[in-house]
Amino acid sequence: MNAAWIFPFIVLGGALQTCGAAMNGQLNKHITNPWLASTISFALITFFFASATLIQPRPLPTSSDIASLPWWAVVGGLVGAVQVYAGLTLVNKVGAGTFMGLTVTAALITSLVIDHFGWFRMQAHPINPWRVLGGLLLVAGVSLVAKF
Question: Where in the chain are the domains?
Fold first, then answer.
């Protein structure tokens, strides 16, 4: 399998996440109700994925697939909703750079902990001094972005 597209796609996703936070900030500004703005944002997401499912259907889960599903696996979307709501309501207050810097830094530090302990059935990737240094450099970088 040629996976040369994986890293560019992840970078594109990160860039689009920043654009999405700024777009959602404007959505909230003009809708004036963050709950309604979140609903509009997620309605579009739901429509997009429902359409994609109809265009390119994949196999449906079996009853054993569903039975083996950890209870917390379905909460991932709700966790994402927290980020969308934060973007809707806070990106205009702190700026896109600070907002995304904090988001990325918090995500990286949390991911280091998840990797180290193998939480959520992830393969463990032990912490080491280089990973800690990378996290500290992100903290330093976001501190500079937020301050200046």
Answer: 6-147
